[in-house]
Amino acid sequence: MSRGGRGGHTRVRTSRGRTAQSTRWLERQLNDPYVKRAKAEGYRSRAAYKLIELDEKFGLLKGAKRVVDLGIAPGGWTQVVRRKVPKAEIVGIDLLPVDPIEGATIFQMDFMSDAAPDTLIEALGGRPDLILSDMAANTVGHPQTDALRTMALIETAFAFAEDVLEPGGSFVAKVFAGGADADLVAQMKRAFATVKHAKPPSSRKGSVEWFVVAQGFKGRAEPPSE
């Protein structure tokens, strides 16, 4: 399937039944240092390093006691939380099935369903002080539609954070190039002490993903007065 290339670079032969696009994806995976590091260090995905790097920059996990992981699959972010703050309670949710992670409660259900918020908080046993969202909508190939679908997820995650976060808590969500919508950022700034965008080094250069990091929850944002 593969052979060594120059400088240790692994090249993948295109085989019957595999598209050129999937061949490029496989070759990129085989040569990605974060993929290799994740395997060596026991993380389920390279995405674990995005949270590690965000934590190094913003101190997200310091003192965390209750954590919600939205879009948990395959579980890399929850693994990081378990290693960094092993005494923290953590619940996760995803449409996809996720193999169990010791010390974490995982639900396979739609976060957009009416029952999801209460289910998460009941399992957590109290208000979270950190909400992580690596959610992104399934793409349909139309950039504007894809952006709107993902923005709807982000807005729902933020509304959830406003409703349930402990004062002083933090909210982290994946967004795409250009960052979160200006109106949403304005709402976040009313609800949090600081709101910043960041692109961790492990996020692939060609990727359009960024993360919005909101810290110091002040309480539910009130609409501006007329």
TrEMBL record:
Biased composition (Basic residues): 1-16
Keywords: Cytoplasm, Methyltransferase, rRNA processing, S-adenosyl-L-methionine, Transferase
Domain of life: Bacteria
Catalytic residue positions: 174
Catalytic activity: uridine(2552) in 23S rRNA + S-adenosyl-L-methionine = 2'-O-methyluridine(2552) in 23S rRNA + S-adenosyl-L-homocysteine + H(+)
Keyword Cytoplasm recorded: yes
EC supergroup of this enzyme: transferase
Name this polypeptide is given: Ribosomal RNA large subunit methyltransferase E
Organism whose genome encodes this protein: Stakelama pacifica
High-level lineage: Bacteria, Pseudomonadati, Pseudomonadota, Alphaproteobacteria, Sphingomonadales
